[in-house]
Write a structure and sequence with these properties.
7-stranded parallel sheet; single chain; Rossmann fold; 8-stranded mixed sheet; alpha/beta; 19 helices
Length: 598
């Protein structure tokens, strides 16, 4: 991606910053008395530009019912008459934020986000807003810390106007929707000495990937980096993702990710449907109605991104033998229809955890049935549906009528030597939990049972799922979201990793492999009966595995006899490595295509 100097415009909801704009050399915009006013530094003076304020508010979901012509005039004014290469800095909760998403998609207007108050939740529209932001301006470091715990994607951050202007010279100019078709991708010529046969072309499609602060993306990143190597060059891997790997923030190190064969396709929510004239296609309003209807039942993140993918690859000469689509989110699984029709690809759907029949998703009956209906459509288009364990695979819709397979997660054997183990206070027995918490997998019992004089529970991840009155508990140490390497460093410094299982015990979370990789003991706290479920099958015969009921009585009974084993840590079993599970996936790709294997 190219880099360019922007001219920032602070687009706030008041008119109090004109003097500040003059001092900092930053233009300031406001809305007052039916007009949009922009204050622009001009030498030692300020000049003011005005534009009429359209009477009808702009909403992405209303695009199919109204003509956004008046708003397009405002955007053209911003692009053509204000300042060179304008960068709108807009409050994340500003009434114009959906207009800015549209402007970025339609006409490449760049923007950054200002956070004067924390973002309470990240909904579907917010992912489009955040994913296309050039830079985020936080008025307080605590607000940035709060944001970092919620948003898993990469971003540039600034804590002052001066810092913002200093960073603009290195911020990337993001490709808008209208520029995607003009991207020319040059693929390095393949060494034909590797094999006489043309490689199998595999497209991995995942909304989240790369430098995201989420353990789940490690599955995707490993496949992208290692499938070609493990297959001796018989499989050429591409990745399509909504995550801009060039958005390298100070607090998100990116090391060694390959960028060849990487297709960054931005998610602009409803604006993904717009034509070059900023209008919706004739079928657009119906598409919006279908998304709004489905959104009442399940998460529709990536619903519109699927169309952006189709448009991107429609303009490409690429062709893929196999398309592997990985959730969560799951709405983009419908891309399979395009891949089947355009390339006659074999389709692998990677559910990891279940979608419609996931026991921990608190659906109402009618919501779950709507999700099941959608999932049946996804699976009808698949050649193979995979999940991380047999219990989860059995929960896939039509699992008895379609091809399914278990592709476990695992620990990344490549980085174990590079992990720097964090020193944790050895006067305590240090328990650690990495990842998300859910309504049916609560840490309440263990937090109430640990002795402040003897124990600590280190949590890596967001705070959701922890009772508000326990967030300040002295036995709890919150580390927030961490990179994978840093997560393993904290895990390696602990004595025992904690896993919370729901009553159905269908989960085999990625964290279990991290615990095994770092050689620590494992405590499995289950709402159901101990020693049952998917983990019981996978961990059969392993040492240092403890079970208890996820209740204060069950945890207390375990703690009576538990003493950390610090004499020696176990050597990881290759059976639990990502290389092992990836080899199984490669064999399935050979089977689906009928070529490449021995």
């Amino acid at each position: 991606m190219s880099h360019s100097s922007f001219t920032p415009i602070i687009f706030a909801q008041d008119v109090s910053a004109a003097d500040e704009a003059a001092r900092t050399g930053i233009a300031h915009a406001s809305v007052r008395r039916g007009k949009i006013s922009v204050y622009i530094p001009d030498g030692n003076e300020m000049r003011i530009e005005h534009s009429p304020y359209p009477q009808i508010p702009f909403r992405l979901n209303d695009m199919g019912r109204g003509d956004p012509y008046a708003w397009k005039l405002v955007l053209m004014w911003m692009l053509d008459e204000l300042v060179p290469n304008p960068l709108i800095i807009i409050d994340h909760d500003h009434p114009f934020r959906e207009l800015i998403i549209f402007a970025n998609a339609w006409n490449s207007l760049s923007y950054g986000l200002r956070f004067a108050v924390p973002m309470p939740t990240i909904r579907v529209t917010e992912y489009a807003l955040l994913g296309n932001s050039v830079i985020n301006l936080f008025t307080k470091s605590e607000i940035e810390g709060h944001f970092r715990k919620k948003y898993i994607g990469p971003y540039y951050a600034a804590l002052s106007l001066d810092e913002l202007t200093a960073k603009l010279d290195v911020c990337p100019v993001k490709n808008s929707k209208t520029r995607l078709a003009k991207v020319v991708r040059e693929i390095a010529p393949r060494d034909q000495s590797v094999a006489d046969e043309k490689p199998i072309k595999l497209l991995v499609l995942s909304y989240f990937s790369g430098p995201c602060r989420a353990v789940a993306v490690q599955r995707i990143n490993y496949w992208l980096e290692e499938i070609s190597k493990i297959s001796d060059g018989k499989i050429e891997v591409h990745l399509a993702t909504a995550i801009d790997w060039d958005s390298e923030a100070d607090n998100v190190p990116i090391k060694g990710f390959p960028t060849e064969n990487l297709h960054f396709v931005p998610d602009h929510n409803v604006a993904s449907l717009t034509t070059d004239f900023g209008e919706l296609p004739v079928w657009g309003p119906r598409f919006i109605v279908s998304e709004l209807r489905n959104a009442t039942s399940f998460n529709t993140l990536s619903y519109y991104w699927r169309y952006a993918l189709e448009e991107y690859f429609e303009e490409s000469d690429l062709k893929f033998d196999v398309v592997l689509i990985s959730g969560n989110p799951f709405a983009c699984f419908d891309f399979a229809a395009f891949a089947k029709q355009r390339w006659r690809s074999r389709i692998i759907l990677d559910y990891r955890d279940p979608f419609a029949n996931n026991p921990r998703f608190a659906y109402r009956d009618e919501q779950r049935e709507a999700a099941r209906y959608a999932e049946r459509g996804y699976n009808f288009q698949s050649d193979l549906a995979v999940s991380v364990n047999r219990d989860s695979t059995d929960l896939i819709e039509f699992s008895d009528e379609i091809n399914t397979l278990v592709i476990e997660n695992g620990f990344d054997e490549r980085i174990l030597d590079d992990v720097k183990v964090k020193d944790l206070d050895k006067q305590f027995a240090n328990f650690v939990h990495a990842g998300s918490l859910y309504h049916d997998r609560s840490p309440t019992a263990i937090l109430r049972s640990l002795d402040v004089k003897k124990h600590r529970l280190h949590h890596i991840g967001g705070e959701a799922g922890i009772d508000a009155d326990l967030l300040d508990a002295p036995v709890l140490v919150l580390h927030g979201r961490q990179t994978y390497n840093d997560t393993l460093g904290i895990v390696g410094g602990a004595d025992c990793g904690v896993v919370f299982l729901s009553e159905s015990a269908f989960e085999t979370t990625t964290k279990i492999y991290d615990y095994l990789a770092m050689g620590i003991e494992v405590l499995i706290c289950t709402h159901g009966e101990p020693h049952v479920g998917a983990l019981s099958q996978i961990l059969e015969g392993c040492e240092g595995i403890h079970w208890c009921k996820n209740s204060e009585e069950g945890v207390a009974e375990f703690l009576k006899t538990y003493t950390p084993n610090r004499r020696s840590k176990k050597t990881p079993n290759d059976r639990f490595s990502r290389r092992h599970s990836t080899s199984i996936l490669i064999d399935q790709i050979y089977n689906l295509t009928g070529k490449g294997g021995q």
